[in-house]
């Protein structure tokens, strides 16, 4: 499927997140993913970030393979942000085009997905008819992921993200039952308004794509006092990833199945999650 990364903490360059880690999102996971459904994720990429210059996040998306895009490499060395979402894509059937690349944006909100809605072609009409008529014209691409985003916005994402995502996936599973589609939901989702971050791991089958969060930076500093990278991160730094960015023992904690992870500043909460 895909691989993604969500970062919140002290401002860093995109280069620090996308290229420098040992198992970096761009140079390693896009070509040699260890835990993904496919080792190569070359059907486009995207990155979204927040800064003080605009109330809405910036977004850069391309259909080029992430590892060979010179524009991304140039941009990454100059953009600094304290909240970043990045995604490398392996299509599950929809077209390779910019409007199908993640993250998707609406106002201050960004959204990414790794996985799929099984039987989406059969469910698409039902799901999109459930989208608010005022939001429906804003759907630009043809992916299940973007439809999920606007379905969640319709159901209250901006007010209560966990409830809205639970309701959106509930709509998907109900539509799937009507069309005889087994196990329709698969994957991990993340959304943010630039202040808080919500990540979800769920599948109808109970076999979700992988998801990890970093161990507390203060704990890692004690364990690895000679590691210079750890001294450059604040205690509030939180990274949520499809697969670990490096091999530092104890640095990554797997997010459990059927879970919502809420990150608010340096605080995080793990909640049980299921469709409503």
TrEMBL record:
InterPro entries: EgtC-like (IPR026869), Gamma-glu_amide_hydrolase (IPR052373), GATase_2_dom (IPR017932), Ntn_hydrolases_N (IPR029055)
Residues annotated as domain Glutamine amidotransferase type-2: 2-276
Coiled coil (UniProt feature): none
Residue spans crossing the bilayer: none
Keywords on record: Glutamine amidotransferase
Gene3D superfamilies associated with the record: Glutamine Phosphoribosylpyrophosphate, subunit 1, domain 1
Pfam family, one: GATase_4
Superkingdom field: Bacteria
PANTHER family on file: GLUTAMINE AMIDOTRANSFERASE DUG3-RELATED (PTHR43187)
Listed name of the protein: Class II glutamine amidotransferase
Source organism per UniProt: Cellulomonas chitinilytica
Taxonomic lineage from the root: Bacteria, Bacillati, Actinomycetota, Actinomycetes, Micrococcales
């Amino acid at each position: 499927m895909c691989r993604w990364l969500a970062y919140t903490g002290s401002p860093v360059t995109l280069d620090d997140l996308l290229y420098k880690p040992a198992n970096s999102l761009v140079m390693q996971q896009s070509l040699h993913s260890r835990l993904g459904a496919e080792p190569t994720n070359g059907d486009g990429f995207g990155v979204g970030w927040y800064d003080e210059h605009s109330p809405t996040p910036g977004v850069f998306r391309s259909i080029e393979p992430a590892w060979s895009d010179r524009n991304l490499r140039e941009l990454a060395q100059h953009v600094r942000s304290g909240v970043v979402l990045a995604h490398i894509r392996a299509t599950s059937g929809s077209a390779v085009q910019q409007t199908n690349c993640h993250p998707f944006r609406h106002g201050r909100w960004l959204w990414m997905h790794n996985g799929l809605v099984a039987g989406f072609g059969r469910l698409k009409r039902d799901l999109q008819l459930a989208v608010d008529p005022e939001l429906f014209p804003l759907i630009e691409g043809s992916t299940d992921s973007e439809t999920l985003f606007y379905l969640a916005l319709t159901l209250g994402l901006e007010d209560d993200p966990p409830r809205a995502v639970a309701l959106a996936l509930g709509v998907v599973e109900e539509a799937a039952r009507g069309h005889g589609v087994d196990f329709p939901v698969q994957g991990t989702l993340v959304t943010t308004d630039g202040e808080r971050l919500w990540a979800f791991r769920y599948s109808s089958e109970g076999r979700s794509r992988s998801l990890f969060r970093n161990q507390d930076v203060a704990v890692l500093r004690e364990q690895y006092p000679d590691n210079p990278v750890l001294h450059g991160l604040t205690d509030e730094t939180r990274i949520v990833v499809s697969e670990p960015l490096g091999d530092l023992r104890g640095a990554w904690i797997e997010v459990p199945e059927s879970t919502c992870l809420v990150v608010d500043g340096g605080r995080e909460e793990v909640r049980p999650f299921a469709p409503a």
